Amino acid sequence: MYLLDTTTKRLSAFFNERRPPYAILSHTWGTEEVTFQDLRAFHEGTLQQHPFSSSVSSRAGWRKIEACCDQALRHGLEWVWIDTCCIDKSSSAELSEAINSMFAWYRDSKVCYVFLSDVDETVEDISEPNSSFRGSRWFTRGWTLQELLAPRRIIFFSSSWQVIGRLTKGSKLSEVASEITSIQPAFLGGLDLRIANIAVRMSWASERVTTRGEDMAYCLLGIFEVNMPLLYGEGTKAFDRLQEEILKRSYDHSLLA
Asked: Exposed (0-12), middle (13-18) or buried (19+): which is 201, by Cβ within 10 Å?
């Protein structure tokens, strides 16, 4: 697992037994993200030779990284994990490990910052039916489902990094998030997901989408405590494999109902 130093913005690799406390970011990808290769090239001074290079520090993705690091420092955390720049996606082995481990990485974080780039800078009443919070793209993406369910502590931020609220038991934010997602508030508050049967957990993802078809299966691995190899190009077969793996591990056949 690579973590980003909140002060130097440099990456370091850690293994489970020596992993320091860290914050983790949940967000939706934009068009100016900073990748693992971008960050390495930026610090090594080889960005000009890096394909598709533009000044890293001028990108919206860099400003997101800086804001996330600043927030972590305020919470006394020296490390953050951000999926755009902390996974070497050129390595299929590393990508597979990251996707199979991602639920655990979110669960083990000290705090998860949910950055909503499409929520107004002046945050309105989130309970209003037409609020930008309720309409945020973040609530529609497949990958962000586990990022909502796994962490023990979640703070939501607007596009200007103003705090919208904390997802705590009985909070207004928890009630609104439950209405948006159709997930019982108790599960948003840390209740063991295994208490919900397989069909219910699958229903939580039914209205969500991913850019690649296979990812609709891969983004659910942690929610069902399944590990399996990634085979991009297999299309809908990925979901068939996921269902097979779930049924191998569970006596709950509600999936077949």
From this structure: buried
